[in-house]
Amino acid sequence: MVKTEVLQQYAIQLLAECFATCILVLFGEAAIANFKFAGQASNSTLPVGIAFGVGVFSAMMIGGPITGAHLNPAVSIALMTIRKLKPLQCIFRIIGQISGAFLAALLVYLVYFNQFNIFDGGLRQVTGPNGTADIFFTMPAKDIPQWNTFIDQFVSTGCLMIFVMAVTYEYNHMISDVAKPFAFAIVVMTLICAFSINAGAALNPARDLGPRLFGIFVYGWNDVFQVHNYFFWVPILGPTFGAIFGAWIYTGYTWLIKHYGHFPNTEHTDVDGKIDLGDIQTKYVDDAHKLQQKFTKVNG
């Protein structure tokens, strides 16, 4: 039976993830809408990447002190599989993340409501010359098969998760806590610029599913989930399995480093290397030189 205090804590974490994810998706999707309605001739994804990057930084300022700002169900699920998050806690966070993305899509729609009407004449369309659904959720590029888009999302989110694990690794002293939000912002910006043409670089099931659920009220259930031969599963399962793979790859990597690397800045887990007080006794208690030699011998 889960205690009331624990449920309250999980509820607060849900709220924090909802608020933070809302800000992230709001910045990113507002940038997409602005780019689309402004009729930009450039095909560069850099402005959208910058918006999502700054969104990540802002979201971490909001949710970071409370939950670490996962902002992404794929990240939460991956951490749960390596026992860094409890299942019920993970469920609460995912609900918050999807809800936040839903609210962000609603805000984007309200802010740009007149722009939508100017663009499509008041007739909402998912695809085509006047289609606007790509503002809210991702779509595949023309003639790209779904297996290819799945691999795209698997690899890109796997890279994201490896970066998350590396930056937050307890023995990584290459980066300070102050610099971590900047690092996450830059890597998200980079991944969007590097992996956007095939499947829209969702990298985050909540970023796609939350706005897609909102899209039901604008475009209809069938159009939202059946478009592009039921593509909706790719930005959900691709990032999720990619993040799990990335988490386990990095966990295996650090396990090897800890056990066989013998580096001074990693945890020593060699069972045979445990210090026995009997091994460091010296004939003379004050003989510091001999004591130091004993320590050196025991620790390798």
TrEMBL record:
Signal peptide: none annotated. InterPro entries: Aquaporin-like, MIP, MIP/Aquaporin, MIP_CS. It comes from the Eukaryota. The chain crosses the membrane at residues 12-33, 45-69, 90-112, 150-169, 181-203, 230-250. It comes from Rotaria sordida. One of its GO terms (cellular component) is basolateral plasma membrane. This is Aquaporin. Pfam families: MIP. GO terms for molecular function: glycerol channel activity; water channel activity.
